[in-house]
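hey can u run this one w/ 6-phosphogluconic acid bound, need the structure tokens asap thx
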Amino acid sequence: MPEIVRVADAGELAVRASQLMRECIDQAIATRGVARVALSGGSTPGAAYRLLGQSALDAERCRWFFVDERCVPPDSERSNYRAAKRDLFDALPVAHVFRMQGEAGAQAGARHYAELLAREVPCFDLVVAGIGDDGHTASLFPGTGAVRDPALVVAVEPGGGLEPRISLGRSTLLAARRIVILVTGAAKQPALAQALTAGDEDAVPARIYLRAESATLIADEAALTPR
Ligand code: 6PG
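ok here u go:
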């Protein structure tokens, strides 16, 4: 069961998340000289990324990677890279960014990123994850079998009109030294409650974090309180 940090609302979540990210980054730099961080997309982490970008971190020693990417060009409004650039990278004096190539398609993009990880990432110091209303995490979508795929990086067809995705695989996510999961809002409450209850992982892929000792869930009252 992940450690649970309960916060009042999305504003407090952004503050706590940015502080925790900063601690992990500083610790990694102090211990290994470099911090390797995998970032999620979606709307939840943006405010935390903006606070982190203002926190005078040692950007030269940070290496930024992605948890997942939508198969769109990097300048698309749907691109996780574009969002992280806007919210974080553009605020830093230097940003060493290793993006997933969504524009290459899911299969080629996943192959490219697996090769890149094998070269650049012995282990992530920090993974920033989210949970979708349907229980997905990263781009491991329910009912697709992606959560069972042992590959470092997986190509996912989420269905439901969503574009194909590239996603870190479960083994890569769970091997991180620290996983920080950010969840806000009443719409996420049912999925979060399921994610915190053992059961079929393909039905609720966010259950992969249940046995992760290195995981911290930061969630607001609305996401944690059944209605
Ligand atoms: C993505 C994400 C995804 C996200 C959840 C939550 O590309 O969509 O990386 O896994 O974390 O869907 O998204 P929200 O923060 O927008 O609710």
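The chain has seven helices and ten strands. anyway lmk if its weird
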